[in-house]
Specification:
The complex is a heterodimer.
Chain A: E1 9-10, E2 15-19, E3 26-31, H1 33-39, E4 44-46, E5 53-54, E6 59-64, E7 69-73, E8 78-83, H2 86-89, H3 93-96, E9 105-109, H4 121-133
Antiparallel strand pairs in A: 1-2, 2-3, 3-9, 4-6, 5-8, 6-7, 8-9
Chain B: H1 10-15, E1 19-23, E2 26-31, H2 35-44, E3 46-50, E4 55-60, H3 64-69, E5 83-90, E6 96-106, E7 109-114, H4 119-129, E8 135-138, E9 144-149, H5 153-160, E10 172-177, E11 180-185, E12 194-199, H6 201-214, E13 220-222, H7 225-234, H8 269-278, E14 282-289, E15 300-303, E16 306-316, E17 323-330, E18 339-344, E19 347-354
Parallel strand pairs in B: 3-13
Antiparallel strand pairs in B: 1-2, 3-9, 4-7, 4-8, 5-6, 6-7, 9-12, 10-11, 11-12, 14-17, 14-19, 15-16, 15-18, 16-17, 18-19
Classes of the chains: A alpha+beta, B alpha+beta.
Chain lengths: 134, 363
């Protein structure tokens, strides 16, 4: 059973967005436990650059395992204000601690209401259950 | 997964929590503990692979050796009985139908391991071109196959198959397992020492369990198709369907060393002789990619902004940490040291042609 954190929002692309405690206009973005497990060993993470403008649902980076490349999709629209530099040398942090140390990047929200488009933990759990039934 | 074929070790994979995927019509384990962990297990200890999906064909008869020799690019006369030989199997136009391991049991009996996805095509092709007093039988459903690979593999194998313990690489011996005939072949697809053991399907689970139990102190464990792919790629071994297929010739694919244009006629020889004379237009090379790019199947290879080839396989080498791949490039740009670039999803990453293998086991 995949771990799901109750304090954040989720996308159908298995990313999470958590409002930064210190900056209510900034969200921290990562991938979910379900995603990291499905991807397997993560050996490379390509993130957007600080200052990049990203659009909700558009690709903004890649995550690579030994076998495959997967796109990262922006969960919200906004400006990238910070990226997790530790992932350059230690991409395995995403496998080991996807909800904390393995965060990907932070976005300054262009439109806070976009967060309402995302699923809460309960909805995401139901979404995962629907996938397992396929 | 419901409509997929299962190997005799399917229950083992389920018990071990293997992640099953479709491969060549079979439900096969792509990984158990993770590709990196399994890769390291094989490079430093010993891993067990279920490769029962592979096909087995036997050619027998007074002229079996000559009959097979007329089908393949390599030359069975170069080895004696009890030896294994890697070869390409070509169509008349020189395109690769499959790559095979031939086991020369005797001059009248050749046992052949073929790729699972090509089994039906291989058998049809070989039957269509088979000449002389020999008959060919598809025995794929009568064999399971377990590959035991890694520096600790010889020690483990010696405990289970003491009679075959002294076998040098690329040999084959007939043994028994579970009271049934088996083949112990010191071949593999990882670059490590070890063997591929062909056993009766009914004996496969017992062999897997015995290898697991008797290899605990040697660090034995399962390894899936994911690690098999990263291991073979570090050795620059071709994967049929990725690096070689009907549209590529052995001369292009760097398989000239198993293509004996000086031997008497074989299927595809005329086309290959002509290609050699005209000049091989492209070659499969090893690439290292820099600047955090990882080459992947299908990515364009560039030289000064112009596309000069494409990547056929690629990964981040678990053993070296380098981004490595195989790619077809124009022959003029195939020399080691040539500076190229790979278009990694719209981002041009610097690359260089390098010598292969990418990794030397035991060094």
């Amino acid at each position: 059973m995949s771990q799901i954190e109750k304090d954040r929002r989720y996308t159908r692309e298995h990313e999470w967005a958590l409002v930064d405690e210190d900056h209510p206009n900034v969200v921290i973005v990562g991938i979910t436990d379900y995603a990291q497990d499905k991807l397997g060993d993560i050996v490379m993470v390509e993130l957007p650059t600080v200052g990049d403008k990203i659009e909700q649902d558009e690709t903004c980076g890649t995550v690579e395992s030994p076998k495959s490349v997967s796109d990262l999709f922006a969960p919200v629209t906004g400006k990238v204000v910070e990226v997790n530099e530790a992932l350059t040398d230690s991409p395995e942090l995403v496998n080991e601690d996807c909800y904390d140390e393995g965060w990907l990047f932070k976005v300054e929200l262009a439109d806070k209401s976009e967060l309402d488009d995302l699923m809460d933990a309960r909805e995401y759990e139901a979404f995962l259950n629907s996938l397992d039934e396929d | 997964m419901a409509d997929l074929a299962q190997t005799p070790l399917y229950a083992v994979h389920q018990r071990l929590g293997g992640r099953l995927v479709e491969f060549a019509g079979y439900a096969m384990p792509v990984q158990y503990d993770g590709i990196l962990a399994e890769h390291e297990r094989v490079r430093t200890r010993v891993g067990l692979f279920d490769v029962s999906h592979m096909g087995e064909v036997r050619v027998t008869g007074p002229e079996a050796l000559e009959a097979v020799n007329r089908l393949v690019t390599n030359d069975l006369h170069r080895v004696g009985d009890g030896r294994a030989l890697y070869t390409a199997l070509c169509d008349t136009d020189g395109g690769i139908v499959d790559d095979l391991i031939l086991y020369r049991l005797s001059a009248t009996e050749i046992f052949i391991c073929v790729n699972a996805a090509n089994r039906a095509a291989d058998v049809a092709h070989m039957r269509a071109h088979l000449t002389g007093d020999a008959r060919l039988e598809d025995e794929s459903d009568r064999w399971a196959q377990i590959a035991v690979q890694g520096p600790n593999a010889p020690e483990l194998l010696a405990r289970v198959f003491p009679k075959a313990a002294k076998l040098k690489p690329f040999r084959v011996a007939q043994v028994d397992y579970g009271g049934r005939p088996a083949y112990f072949a010191t071949t593999g697809y990882t670059g490590e020492r070890g063997a591929e053991v062909y056993v009766a399907p009914e004996a496969a689970e017992a062999l897997w369990n015995e290898l697991t139990e008797r290899g605990q102190d040697l660090g034995v464990g399962p390894a899936g198709l994911g690690a098999r792919d990263t291991l073979r790629l570090e050795m620059a071994y071709c994967l049929y369907g990725n690096d070689i297929d009907r549209t590529t010739t052995p001369l292009e694919a760097g398989l000239g060393w198993v293509t004996r244009l000086d031997k008497p006629g074989f299927v595809g020889k005329d086309a290959l002789v002509a290609q050699e004379a005209a000049g091989v237009p492209r070659k499969l090379v090893g690439l290292e990619v820099f600047d955090r790019g990882i080459p992947r199947h299908g990515y364009p290879v560039l030289h000064q902004g112009r596309q000069v080839g494409h990547v056929t396989s690629g990964t981040k080498s678990p053993s070296t940490g380098r981004a490595i791949g195989l790619a077809y490039v124009e022959a003029a740009l195939s020399a080691p040291g040539t500076e190229l670039a790979v278009d990694c999803r719209g981002k041009e990453k610097p690359a260089r042609v390098v010598e292969t293998p990418f990794y030397q086991p035991g060094k």
